[in-house]
Design brief:
By secondary structure, this protein is α/β, with parallel strands linked by helices. The chain folds into two domains: about 5-145 and about 345-485, FAD/NAD(P)-binding domain, CATH 3.50.50; about 155-340, FAD/NAD(P)-binding domain. About 30% of the residues lie in helices and about 20% in strands. The protein is built from 14 helices and 25 strands. Strands 1, 2, 3, 4, 5, 6, 17, 18 and 21 form a nine-stranded mixed sheet that branches. Strands 7-16-8-9-12 form a five-stranded parallel sheet. Helix 1 runs parallel beside helix 11. The chain is globular. Residues about 485-495 have low confidence and may be disordered.
Length: about 500
């Protein structure tokens, strides 16, 4: 089997992968690269999910790329608009010409002797192979083929239709039908008010409450800036405004959780009918930002509840019944359609396996360097965004830093770079300090973080900006080298 070689192979053509292509083209124009994408279209999350009302749960001034202003009127954008934005970025920069679709990475094997990765890829025509000097993983953090679905008792008894948001049927007719949405995460918060526009009634069944924050879909300050400044300047200012506010609010949640909790619940009470049991349905057992806050746009969920188009039932699901659900407290809820918005199934590296010089790599036994490289895994970076802010903020910085590393390798005329921890006694902890179920189910499979930089994840854009855009690349942790000179090569060099 012949192998096509690239200086850099990017895996994934979603928001991260298209951004990676931009940074490589602009900061490393001498590097050859290709993007392989397992699906038939670019866009990642924003092409995969097709459920009603699909939208971002972050503002587009921070979810958008730093180099391409978001110019639509809505700051909280719907999925099709985000997909168009990604398509435009790829087309305007010629990145779409670098993407190879329906190519799923199966494995990657690093050879120190050759200073290159050999990447096995499944395609519609069969197995193919690439080699590359640097492997850049932008494959997201969850499985695309299916979501998380608990083994609810009696699912086969239900006489209606069961739907998972990750596999939404085309043209699902829910008009004038009774709908149950199981879950209270971002997907459920989007689906419930959207489906309530046409359904007879929508009931959100949640095991426990989530913090819900209502936010206008338009950003008044951004609109004011756009009316007075060039697009790039208005976008940059709007981006920084939202970055700084997000950092301030997150830190406030950590420093004064009870105060923030009281404030958030006060806002909820103001938007629900008098006497509504907010303690039962909207008061979580955890503090703000121990799990991600759920965003609703323009108070749409609360409006649906006020108008009796939607309701919330808090309690564990005991079982499915022929006509709907029975909760553990004995309540029965009837439905024609049940949507299982029960979350994602996390997956590192798109499910592919890695090996270094014949030894399998177990990500859960590695340390994460600056949120982008695995300890003792050469010439590889993996994009993982923020849990407390927009994904793209970190993805952009990683793209810049990868290019800084590649350019330094060229300047030093060295082909291998690896992050190595010299302190085996350094305390380590979980990759993220996040109690959400979808993280906790696979936390042992994720890289660990150390007690200090550059092994510690700060989940802080300002700190990462200083470290990744302006900090030294040669930080004493990254080690640069060349492949060992073999006997045959040494003789050839001496003869020359």
């Amino acid at each position: 089997m012949t192998s096509e070689h690239f200086d850099v192979l990017v895996v994934g053509a979603g928001l991260s992968g298209v951004g990676a292509g931009y940074w490589l083209q602009n900061l490393c124009p001498n590097k050859s690269y290709a993007i392989i994408e397992a699906r038939a279209r670019k866009g990642g999350t924003w092409d995969l999910f097709r459920y009603p009302g699909i939208r971002s749960d972050s503002d587009m001034f921070t979810l958008g790329y730093s180099f391409k202003p978001w110019t639509d009127s809505k700051a909280i954008a719907d999925g099709p608009s985000i997909l168009r934005y990604i398509d435009e970025t790829a087309r305007e920069n010629g990145i779409d010409q670098k993407i190879r679709y329906s190519q799923r990475m199966i494995s990657a094997a690093w050879s120190s002797a050759d200073a290159r990765w050999t990447v096995e890829v499944d395609t519609a025509e069969g197995r193919t192979r690439y080699t590359c000097g640097f492997l850049y993983m932008c494959s997201g953090y969850y499985r695309y083929d299916h979501g998380h679905l608990p083994a609810f008792a009696g699912m086969g008894d239900f006489e209606g239709q069961i739907v998972h948001p990750q596999a939404w049927p085309e043209n699902l007719d829910y008009a004038a039908k009774r709908v149950i949405v199981i879950g209270s995460g971002a997907t459920a918060m989007t689906l419930v008010p959207e489906m309530a526009k046409r359904a007879a009634h929508v009931t959100m069944v949640q095991r426990s409450p989530t913090y819900v924050v209502a936010r206008p879909s338009n950003d008044a300050v951004a609109d004011w800036l756009r009316a007075r400044l060039p697009a790039k300047a208005a976008y940059a200012l709007s981006r920084w405004k939202n970055v700084l506010f997000g950092m301030y609010f997150y830190n406030l949640c950590k420093r004064k959780p009870e105060k923030v909790k009281a404030y958030l619940l006060k806002l909820v009470r103001e938007q629900l009918p008098a006497g509504y049991d907010v303690g039962r349905d909207f008061t979580p057992r955890y503090n703000p930002w121990d799990q991600r806050l759920c965003l609703i746009t323009d108070g749409d969920l609360f409006a649906a509840i006020r108008e009796n188009r939607a309701s919330v039932a808090t309690g564990a699901v005991e079982r499915f019944t022929p006509k709907g659900l029975r909760l553990a407290d004995g309540r029965e809820i009837e439905a024609d359609i049940i949507v299982t918005a029960t979350g994602l199934e996390l997956q590192m590296l798109g499910g592919a396996t890695l090996s270094v010089d014949g030894q399998p790599v177990e990500p859960g036994k590695t340390l994460n360097y600056k949120g982008m490289m695995f300890s003792d895994v050469p010439n590889m970076a993996a994009t993982f965004g923020y849990t407390n802010a927009s994904w793209t903020l970190k993805a952009d910085l990683i793209g810049e830093y990868v290019c800084r590393i590649l350019n330094l390798m060229d300047a030093k005329d060295q082909r291998i770079v690896v992050a190595h921890n010299d302190d085996p006694d350094m305390p380590v902890e979980s990759f993220v300090d996040f109690s959400s179920g979808y993280f906790q189910r696979v936390i042992d499979q994720l890289p660990k973080q150390g007690a200090r930089k550059p092994w510690k994840l700060y989940q802080n854009y300002a700190k990462d900006l200083l470290a990744l855009r302006y900090g030294k690349v040669e930080d004493g942790v990254l080690r640069f080298s060349n492949p060992p000179v073999t006997g045959a090569v040494k003789k050839a060099m001496e003869a020359a």
